[in-house]
C-alpha cells in the first residue's frame, strides 16, 4: 500500500479554494450566494448613508436661509431641486392651491396637514428602500453558511470512511475546511445587521427633522405668514414675561389675604365690628341692594337699579 506523496514545496492541501473545489456545486453555490449578499449589502449601506447625509446637509441650508425669505415660493427657490425639503414646500403650495378648488367644505388646516403627511410618508418610504434586504441578509446568511458547512462535513466524513483512516490528521483537515462556510456566513451577516440598525437610527433622526419642518411650514401657511420658527423662539421669551404678569396677578390674592390677616389681628374699634347678614351698623334692618351695590347705613334710599 502506497502512502500519498507529501505536497510539493510545503503547500497546504487545506484551504478556502481547496474547500470550494472539493465541495463541488453546492459549495460554489453557497459561496456565490453569500458573496452576492455581501456586495449588495455594502452597496445599500453606502447608498443610504449618502442619501441621509444629503438630507442632513439640506437641513442646515433650511435653518440658515429658508425662513429669511418673504414667502414660501421665494424660500423654495433657495432650496436644492429634487430635495426632500423642497418636495415638502412644493407639496404644501400645491395643497394650498388645490384647497381653493374644493367643492366640499374642508378646513385648510386638515387638507394641508394630510398633504404634508403624505409627502413625509413618500420620503420615508424612499429612505427605507433596501433596509428589508439588509434585515434578510442578517437573519439568513449564518444559516446559509451553516448549510455549506454541513455539506462539507458530510463529504469529508464520506471520504474518511472510504479511506479507512480515522486519525486526527485525516479528520481535522476536512472538517476544519468545511467550517470556513460558517465563518463566511457570519462575516456577511454581521455587517448587514450593524448597517441596518445604524441606518434605522439615522432615518428616525432625519424624519424627525422633516416632521418639524413640515409643522413649521403648516403653521406658516395657516397663519398667513405671521408664524415662523424664529418668531416662535422669540415668543418663548415673551411668554416668560407673560408668565411674570400672570404671576403678579396670582400674587394679588395673597396680598389681600395678608391685609385681612393684619386687620384681623388688630384691636377692634367701636363701629368696626363685622355686620350680621341683613343688619346695618346701627342694628336696623338693612335695605336689599340690587347688583351687589351696598347702601350707606345712615340713609334710607331705595336700591339703585
Strands, helices and their partners?
Layout: H1 16-65, H2 72-78, H3 84-99, H4 108-127, H5 131-163, H6 168-178, H7 180-222, H8 229-265
Helix pairs in contact: 1-5, 1-7, 2-3, 3-4, 3-7, 4-7, 5-6, 5-7
Based on the model shown, name its key terms.
8 helices; disordered C terminus; rod-shaped
How would you characterize the overall build of this protein?
With 305 residues, the chain is mostly helical. It has one domain. Helix content is 71%, strand content 0%. It contains 8 helices and no strands. It has helices spanning 16-65, 72-78, 84-99, 108-127, 131-163, 168-178, 180-222, 229-265. Helix 2 packs antiparallel against helix 3 (84-99) and helix 3 crosses helix 7 (180-222).
Low-confidence stretches: 1-6, 231-275, 287-305
What proportion of the residues form beta strands (DSSP E)?
Answer: under 5%
Task: Supply the number of structural domains.
Answer: 1
Can you count the helices? 8
Order of helices and strands: HHHHHHHH
Largest sheet entry? none
Oligomer status: single chain
Rounded radius of gyration (Å): 41 Å
The coarse overall form would be rod-shaped
In short:
The chain is mainly alpha-helical and 305 residues long.
Amino acid at each position: 500500500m502506497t502512502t500519498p506523496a507529501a505536497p510539493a514545496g510545503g503547500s497546504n492541501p487545506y484551504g478556502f479554494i481547496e474547500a470550494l473545489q472539493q465541495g463541488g456545486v453546492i459549495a460554489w453555490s453557497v459561496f456565490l450566494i453569500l458573496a452576492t449578499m455581501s456586495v449588495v449589502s455594502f452597496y445599500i449601506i453606502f447608498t443610504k448613508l449618502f442619501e441621509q447625509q444629503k438630507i442632513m446637509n439640506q437641513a442646515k441650508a433650511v435653518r440658515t436661509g429658508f425662513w429669511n425669505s418673504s414667502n414660501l415660493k421665494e424660500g423654495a427657490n433657495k432650496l436644492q431641486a429634487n430635495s426632500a425639503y423642497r418636495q415638502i414646500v412644493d407639496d404644501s403650495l400645491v395643497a394650498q392651491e388645490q384647497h381653493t378648488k374644493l367643492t366640499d367644505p374642508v378646513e385648510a388646516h386638515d387638507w394641508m396637514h394630510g398633504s404634508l403627511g403624505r409627502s413625509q410618508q413618500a420620503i420615508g418610504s424612499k429612505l427605507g428602500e433596501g433596509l428589508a434586504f439588509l434585515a434578510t441578509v442578517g437573519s439568513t446568511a449564518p444559516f446559509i453558511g451553516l448549510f455549506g458547512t454541513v455539506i462539507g462535513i458530510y463529504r469529508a466524513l464520506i471520504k474518511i470512511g472510504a479511506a479507512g483512516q480515522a486519525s486526527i490528521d485525516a479528520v481535522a483537515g476536512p472538517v476544519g475546511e468545511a467550517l470556513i462556510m460558517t465563518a463566511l456566513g457570519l462575516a456577511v451577516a454581521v455587517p448587514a445587521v450593524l448597517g441596518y440598525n445604524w441606518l434605522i437610527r439615522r432615518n428616525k433622526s432625519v424624519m424627525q427633522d422633516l416632521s418639524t419642518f413640515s409643522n413649521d411650514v403648516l403653521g406658516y401657511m395657516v397663519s398667513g405668514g405671521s408664524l415662523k420658527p424664529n418668531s416662535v423662539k422669540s415668543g418663548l421669551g415673551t411668554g416668560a414675561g407673560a408668565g411674570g404678569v400672570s404671576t403678579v396677578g396670582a400674587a394679588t390674592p395673597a396680598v389681600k389675604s395678608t391685609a385681612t390677616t393684619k386687620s384681623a389681628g388688630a384691636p377692634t374699634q367701636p363701629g368696626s365690628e363685622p355686620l350680621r347678614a341683613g343688619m346695618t351698623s346701627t342694628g336696623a334692618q338693612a335695605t336689599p341692594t340690587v347688583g351687589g351695590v351696598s347702601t350707606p347705613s345712615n340713609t334710607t334710599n331705595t336700591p339703585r337699579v
